[in-house]
Amino acid sequence: MPPGFSIGPLDDLAAVLALNAANATETSLLDEGALRALIDQAFLAAAVTGPEGLAAFLIALDQDAAYASPNFRWFQARYPRFVYVDRIVTAAGQRGRGLARALYEALFAKAEAAGHDRIACEVNIVPPNPGSDAFHAALGFREVGTAEIHGGAKTVRYLLREATR
Predict the structure, then answer these.
(1) What's the rounded Cα separation, in Å, for the pair 109 and 7?
(2) Residue 1 pLDDT grade (very low, low, confident, very high; cuts 50, 70, 90)
(3) Closest by alpha carbon to 150, among 66, 58, 27?
């Protein structure tokens, strides 16, 4: 991670909502209540901050979360134990600096310490998100399914990374 950046709690909700909104095509919009609900039950909710403030964030839930997302529910129906990355977002001007990788490394370490051996997420196929596809492939994720969601407005690729221990 570049000098001057650090990982900490996700506590600047206004900044998180703004960064999420700027990337809503890849994730989905959140209001403050929905964001608080995610953070309250998160396995990990972490932010990377730097000299200009919030640069990236990650929110992940484990299999026991009460979350109505069709993507989360897809994994919940198929795997008894996992950590699901609901969203990872890096500010456009901060991409390519290793911030998302640092957040994932923190997640992998916490998941391993808690005995989890599966990290799950999804990446849009429609609309396409080739940067995220390449990023997740480089981290060892593989496709385990696809689905159309939101009445066909989005098609997603379900990805899983299993521990190699």
Answers:
(1) 14
(2) confident
(3) 27
Residues 95, 107: Cα–Cα separation, whole Å: 19
* Class of residue 80 by CB neighbours under 10 A (exposed 0-12, middle 13-18, buried 19+): exposed
CB 116 within 8 A of CB 82: yes
In contact, 120 and 160? CB cutoff 8 Å: yes
pTM equals: 0.94
Residue 75's SS3 state is: helix
* Cα 28 to Cα 23: distance, rounded to the nearest angstrom: 8
Q: CA 92, CA 22: separation in Å to the nearest integer? A: 9
Distance between CA atoms of residues 99 and 44, nearest Å:
16
Closest CA to 164 of 111, 125, 127: 111
Q: Where are the alpha helices (DSSP H) in 6-92?
A: 13-22, 32-40, 70-78
Tokens of 114: 């808690």
Q: How far apart are CA 60 and CA 41, in angstroms?
A: 9
